[in-house]
Amino acid sequence: MASASQRVVLITGCSSGIGLRIAVLLAKDEQKRYHVIATMRDLKKKDKLVQAAGDAFGNTLTLQALDVCSDDSVRQCISRVKDRHIDILINNAGVGLLGPVESISLDQMKMVFETNFFGTVRMIKEIMPDMKRRRAGHIIVMSSVMGMQGVVFNDVYTASKFAIEGFCESLAVQLLKFNVKLSLIEPGPVHTEFEAKMMEEVAKMEFPGADADTVRYFKDVYMPSSIDIFEAMGQTPDDIAKCTKKVIESSNPRFRNLTNSLYTPIVAMKYADETGGLSVHTFYNLLFNFGSLMHITMNILKCLTCSCLRRRTISPD
Ligand SMILES: NC(=O)C1=CN([C@@H]2O[C@H](COP(=O)(O)OP(=O)(O)OC[C@H]3O[C@@H](n4cnc5c(N)ncnc54)[C@H](OP(=O)(O)O)[C@@H]3O)[C@@H](O)[C@H]2O)C=CC1
Ligand SMILES: CC1=C(/C=C/C(C)=C/C=C/C(C)=C/C=O)C(C)(C)CCC1
Fold first, then answer.
1. How many angstroms separate the alpha carbon of residue 5 from the centre of ligand 1?
2. What is the Å distance from ligand 1's center to 95 Cα?
3. What whole-number distance in Å separates Cα of residue 76 and Cα of residue 70?
4. How far is the C-alpha of 87 from the C-alpha of 141, rounded, in Å?
5. Per the confidence metrics, is the pTM higher than 0.90?
6. Where would I find the beta strands (DSSP E) of 201-262?
7. N or C: which end of the chain has fewer CB within 10 A?
8. What is the CA radius of gyration of the chain?
9. Is 34 a residue of the active site?
């Protein structure tokens, strides 16, 4: 059980990746400032977390079942929390979806929104009223750079992250009146099971309904560039955990927190040209005209992201 001085942190999607690393980092805090309620939808997947938590398991870290897509599961989980008191809610659970829109069924698209958008909204609706009443609390949402900038062949995933960003941008204003903070964490590519799950999905894909040219652009142009980008820009889940810890420990946390400075110029293009032409044409050129030069492009991005741009992001160190 949490001591009176500890902040209670509830995290969704802790069976792997970023959620697992945030849970472990906070539970192993040297000053034991946090009591972490790590949640996952399938407790059979707990071994990796339990092993990584070591001595913290059963002390500063406890485990509960929670499926963000189920009203009952969310209600049951929160009702088990002492006085329903949660200081920090970290909405991390999420799923990806990649490929030509023609090959993806509406049911598959809805599942992505059920998890990434409605799952997060369900959690916020359950926990926010108590935070508002106490005039205290911090809600963290694991968004993505794709919550700000669309990426070809990630249409539906991007849309789900744009949706949650719009929701949070609106809600943050109201919450400020109640002294409840809301922060988005916006990572670029991160090496987690997310990446492996996508590769596995793509290997199995048969692309029903997509024409041969589109399938070729996806498999032979987008996929190799995307793999290069993961290699050149990829962060570790530990990096994202450290960034998240910095955000919750900040006395004046920012609303938006990009974790990867290599993305700053990409996001800047969007604000530099409100017609959208600069972003669309630059992405087109990067992919279809300079795709084979992706390594050089990455080095140019690294030069562009000199220290002045880097200051705009949250760094893990
Ligand atoms: N990896 C990346 O490149 C990036 C990831 N992100 C975001 O980070 C977050 C974490 O992803 P990451 O760690 O990379 O990926 P992982 O696939 O490693 O982790 C995703 C977690 O979400 C859980 N989850 C999925 N659906 C539900 C559900 N209905 N209820 C509860 N938990 C669920 C998964 O559980 P289960 O094991 O049961 O499936 C898993 O624990 C996501 O929101 C993702 O969009 C953002 C930017 C980049
Ligand atoms: C930047 C960029 C590309 C790819 C970006 C990717 C692959 C980003 C992945 C982000 C993830 C995985 C976010 C998760 O939320 C392209 C389209 C190859 C073209 C050139 C510029």
1. 30
2. 5
3. 10
4. 14
5. yes
6. 256-258
7. C
8. 20
9. no
